[in-house]
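Worked example 3 (structure in, sequence out).
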């Protein structure tokens, strides 16, 4: 299916849209217990969602955000997940990029808390006597970078949704965790650079971030 969609994406999209329960069945496959079916659905959705805002909306309203976050957590989240988590983040970015409706729906569904939870987990020091392999650290940093890219999608300068997104991120602890990432000094240069990109955005929330300091416990 992925090969077909790559060759004829518009035709593939049309077939799914016109098929009875086409989109609901495709999205629900993200929760399929059979990994090959689940992974094929994930790759196909990534291929079909970048261009069509309407298709993005239809996918999102079939509970896609919940299924994506559930899959990310099941696959080890940011610290331990590999290719499947990377693919989930790619799909999430496709659904949210410049899509005002989906960003609003994302907030309304309480998904901002899920972003904060993933960041909190990634920022935690691993308590283990065994050193973490370099390949695992590389996957973690790549996943973390992908999540920071998604956060940046909500903070477009001058965007209609940006003030509401800023407030939601502040209230749910997302930006606190972004700052923890910056101060952690455990991540590669791509991650810390992306944190700097996010911090550049101006506004009430951004001003609050600059004066934020960790509270001693």
């Amino acid at each position: 299916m992925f090969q077909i969609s790559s060759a004829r994406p518009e035709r593939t999209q049309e077939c799914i849209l016109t098929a009875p329960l086409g989109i609901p069945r495709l999205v629900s496959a993200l929760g399929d217990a059979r990994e090959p079916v689940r992974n094929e659905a994930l790759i196909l959705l990534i291929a079909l969602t970048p261009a069509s805002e309407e298709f993005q909306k239809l996918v999102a309203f079939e509970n896609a955000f919940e299924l994506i976050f559930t899959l990310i957590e099941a696959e080890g989240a940011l610290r331990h997940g590999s290719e499947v988590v990377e693919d989930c983040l790619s799909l999430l970015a496709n659904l949210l990029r410049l899509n005002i409706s989906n960003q609003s729906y994302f907030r309304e569904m309480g998904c901002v808390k899920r972003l904060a939870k993933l960041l909190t987990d990634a920022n935690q020091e691993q308590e283990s006597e065994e050193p973490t392999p370099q390949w695992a650290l590389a996957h973690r940093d790549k996943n973390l970078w992908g999540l920071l890219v998604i956060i940046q999608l909500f903070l477009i300068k001058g965007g209609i949704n940006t003030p509401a997104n800023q407030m939601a991120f502040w209230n749910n602890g997302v930006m606190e965790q972004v700052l923890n990432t910056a101060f952690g000094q455990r991540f590669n240069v791509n991650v810390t650079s992306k944190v700097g990109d996010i911090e550049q955005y101006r506004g009430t929330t951004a001003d609050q971030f600059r004066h934020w300091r960790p509270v001693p416990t």
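Notes: The domain at 2-123+132-210 is CATH 1.25.10.10 (Leucine-rich Repeat Variant). The chain is about 75% helix and 0% strand.
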